[in-house]
Amino acid sequence: MKFMLIRRADASTENGTLPSQEILAAMAAYNESMMQAGVFESGNGLRPTSDGCLIRFENGSPTIIPGPLTPASERIAGYSILEVPSLEAAIAWAQQWPTLDADGNVTLELRRYFTLDDFEPGTGLDKHLAHARLPDAVGVHVAFPGTCREAMQFYADVTGGVLESLLTYAETPAAEHMPAALHDRIIHASLNLRGRRIMGADMAPEQYAPPQGVQVQLEYQDLKQASSTFTQLAEGGEVIMPFERTFWSAGFGMAADRFGVQWMINVASNDCSLATQKEAP
Hints:
By secondary structure, this protein is of the alpha+beta class. The protein folds into three domains: 2-52 and 68-116, Alpha-Beta Plaits; 135-209, Roll (2,3-Dihydroxybiphenyl 1,2-Dioxygenase, domain 1); 210-281, Roll (2,3-Dihydroxybiphenyl 1,2-Dioxygenase, domain 1). The protein is 21% helix and 32% strand. It has helices at 11-14, 21-36, 87-94, 123-129, 148-159, 223-234; strands at residues 2-8, 40-45, 53-58, 61-66, 76-83, 108-112, 140-144, 162-168, 186-193, 196-202, 215-220, 238-244, 252-256, 262-267. The chain has a four-stranded antiparallel sheet with strand order 2-5-1-6, with helices on one face. It has a four-stranded mixed sheet with strand order 7-10-9-8. The termini are far apart. 20% of the residues are buried.
C-alpha cells in the first residue's frame, strides 16, 4: 500500500523559517531509516504558501487567489511517500517523526493512494489501464565475474545509496546446482538510489561476458557532486570522455570503472537553449 505522509504547515513554516542543522540531520536520519527498511519512495518540503496560490473554479471559470493562504494548519509544509503493507505500518513510521521538529508540536496526516483496482470497470478506467504497460520502475542489472560484492559496496559508498541486498548462492536453493567455490558469490545485489535500483550478480566463469555497449547513467543537479562522483568512479578505471561542459550540459563525462562497468555522469540543465546554441564562427 502506498501512503502520503503529510506534514501540516504552521506559523513557522508559513513565515519561511528554515529548519536548523540539527533538525535537518534528524530528518535525514529518519528518511535513511525508512530507506534502509525499503519503505521510503520520496519526499519534499514545500515553500510557504506566500510563494504559491490557489486556483478556484466556479462554474468552470478559474480564479487565482495569491498566497499567503490561511489558516496555516490547513496547509501542507511537506510530504513523504511510503510503500508499506498496512495503515498500521504507516502509522508506526509516522510515530517516529523527529521530535526536534517544532519542539515536538507537529501535526501529521496519512492518506492512502487509490489504485486502479478501487474503481468499477468502464470506459474511463480503460483509458487509465491503457497506461498500465508503463513499468512502475526501471532498473539496471550488471553481471560480475566474482567481484559483485566489492563493486556494489563501492557504488554504495560513491553514491550514498542504500545497499538493500547482498544475497549469496549459499543462501538460496540455487546452491545445490552450483559448485561449492561459488557459494559465497553473490546471486542478487540491489542498490537503491531514490527508488531506482542498480542490481548485480556474480556469474559462473563460462557464463560471464564483460558488459559492452551499455552505460549506467547518473544525473545530478549539483555540478560539484557530479564531478566528484565521476572522479571516484573513474579512479583505477578508464576515462572515456573527460568530465566537462558540453553544449547540452554544464558537466558530462564517461568512464569505465575498475570493475569494467561503464558510466555516464550528467548534470541536468534547465536551460533548454543550450541544445540549440552554436559556436560563433
